[in-house]
Amino acid sequence: MKGQVYVSLGVVLLILSTSRHVEAAQCACATVAVHARSGAGTNHNTVHTMYPGECLTYHGDSVHAGDYTWYHLDYNGKSVWAASKWLTTKTCGGSTHTGGGGATSTDHVQLPGCPRIVRRADWGARAPKHHTGDMAAAPIYVFIHHSGAGAECFDQHSCSQKVRVAQDWYMDGHGWSDLGYNFMVGEDGNAYEVRGWTEIGAHTLNYNHNGIAICVIGDFTNKVPNTAALNTVKQLIQCGLSNGKISPSYTLKGHRDVGTTACPGTAFYNLIHSWPHYASGTNHYAG
Q1: Residue 200: Cβ-neighbour burial (10 angstroms; 0-12, 13-18, 19+)
Q2: What CATH number is given for 25-98 in this structure?
Q3: Among the four residues 26, 83, 161, 257, which has the most C-beta atoms within 10 Å?
Q4: What is the pTM of this model?
């Protein structure tokens, strides 16, 4: 009888312990781009690439394989493993601490109220040659661009390909460290993370340190982007405002307002004149 009481008490304690664990689920967050694999070890297939700041649920167990300790994670219901050297662990939704080395990422891209933002890892970005550093304060300018070359895109696969092509063109064709915009937007209705909310871009001469650039994929000289793209651009700006990533007193401009360029295309440029915070500048384009 006494033994049964001890066993029952042990079961109760185990249940309580398990309940507390579920309530305080642990997450593992990437500090650099790191592969989540189908098993522990570099010989296993890559299921997903975690971008810095991305977190997956951590099951709590780990194994040592090769040169690394591998954490057991959950990715969309799939069991995956990632090297702890490039992960931090935290209570999901809480603050992080380093679990395996490397800096902790504090910036997030997919903020509350944002449209869907395709992370760099998910569109197949190359690593930048170097980082330009973060802007000192929330940007006071928002610049609208268009890519100008090639056809528009209407699904994530083709839009991702166009963002990759643009990145290659800037990095290989011009020797830049990375694609210069903060975000690109496709007519699929997705935003595509490039430099994100805080990193200094390379998009608008003399304004990179205090402005962000949103580039819509396509040529909008004779027509405006579709409703999906326009709504995403507007929602992205509002999301930046709501989350302190854009100054409340920001000024909206087209690229041609401050540079000798046709960007963002005449039809699109004329449209943004009616948007909130637009302030006309010197239209340097004579075409």
Answers
A1: buried
A2: 2.30.30.40
A3: 257
A4: 0.64
